[in-house]
Amino acid sequence: MAVINATEGSGRRRARFLKPLSGVLRFAVVIITTYLGLLAVTFFIGRVVPVDPVLAVLGDRAPASAIARVRAEMGLDLPLWQQFLLYLKQVLSGNLGNSVLTSRPVLEDVMRVFPATLELATFGTIVGTAIGIPLGVLAAVKRGSITDQVVRLIGLAGYSIPIFWLALLGLVLFYAKLHWVAFPGRIDVTYEYTFTPITGMLLFDALIQREWDVAWDVFRHIVLPGCLLGYFSLAYISRMTRSFMLNELGQEYIVAARAKGLSEQRIIWFHALRNAAVPLVTVVALSYAGLLEGSVLTETVFSWPGLGLYITNSLQNADMNAVLGGTIVIGSVFIALNLFSDFLYRTLDPRTRVK
């Protein structure tokens, strides 16, 4: 009997050890598979587009011998599968190639412009979350009323109206007519060469350095594009909040809370919303990732020197190394945010964990 009990105890200990290990292995397989898929897509896009990377470097009038030499140096004379392996090796080592437009390493360029995109997307996500969640809660509580219809109409408009049209309209109204916001760009030329950033996110840097004049100038530049992105984030967040809240308000624990005599405000904000906040974490994370990858048109209209504008200029100049490098960075951030939101979801809601 003692031997059987010892064997069962050993089996339980082994199971407790193998269960988290298998979860980690599955998580690693998901990350590796997804990232390999991203690299495969970017590689084949680079081979399909009608742009010769050799001619982009040497020009159309380069001699045939120079073209053949550079093609061999870049590995473009090898079979496609060997080119893909070389591509994987370069990317995993942090080498995204050199930009034809700037003559610098693409990774260096991306690290220089990415904080601007990060700052703009963060500002938009804060605006969208701060307004979208209360609107979604209000629409759920007032289901079927005029308030609900207005909130749903606001969300529908956010999905339907092109952002570049809203951006141009906003510039005409708030910059040209009312003079409430600053000229397109990120910072006034007065402060551009006198202010020293720390993280690359100028508003945050100005605040922590207590440069109030710089902070106000940066805010006047970011407020319009940030609020436009926040509006599109708001449309998604408010709709999902409404859906989650309607589901929670129909649960039995809400009926029990009302039977106990709790106030309606406490039931809505401290019980229903608290449970709806678990899936909302994923929604906000996906919205944030969407703003990081989808701010190309906004950055172009407002001359915002971020990753979106960098990719747009590179594409117009047939700089495929920069285009693919920027795409890889955005895709990597999107994958990371998705995995992080999934981790938070499983952490906050034990019911989703694999038993």
Descriptive tags:
355 residues; mainly alpha; MetI-like fold; 2 domains; 15 helices; globular
Count structural domains.
2
Q: Could you tell me the strand content as a percent range?
A: under 5%
State the fourth-level CATH superfamily of the largest domain: MetI-like
- Looking at CATH, which topology of the largest domain would you report? MetI-like fold
Calculate the terminal CA-CA distance, rounded to whole Å: 29 Å
CATH-scheme architecture of the largest domain: Orthogonal Bundle
pLDDT below 50 for ≥5 consecutive residues: which ranges? Answer: none
Summing up helix and strand content along with how strands pair, one would put the structural category as: mainly alpha
How would a textbook summarize the main sheet?
A: none
Oligomeric grouping of the chains = single chain
Mean pLDDT: 81
**Helical segment count:** 15
Question: Helical amount among residues, as a percent range?
Answer: over 70%
Write down the CATH class of the largest domain.
Answer: Mainly Alpha
Order of helices and strands: HHHHHHHHHHHHHHH
Query: What is the global morphology?
Result: globular
Total beta strand runs: 0
Q: How big is the Rg? A: 26 Å
Membrane topology: Multi-pass membrane protein
Main location: membrane
Organism: Paenirhodobacter populi
Domain ABC transmembrane type-1: 114-341
